[in-house]
Amino acid sequence: MCLGQPLARFVLQVACPTLLRRLPGLRLAVPLADVPFRHDKLAYGVHELPVTW
Fold this sequence. Notes:
By secondary structure, this protein is α+β, with helices and mostly antiparallel strands. Helices cover 34% and strands 19% of the residues.
């Protein structure tokens, strides 16, 4: 486990709701099925997240 993991989770808990509140029309620019996910052994997540508002 990364030592910065708790801090990163906290930042996401604060940043995501703030971003959605300030940009209420924020949405994915592509279908969810087209979002490229990373499935390697070190990290799981998205390569990019195209959004529009």
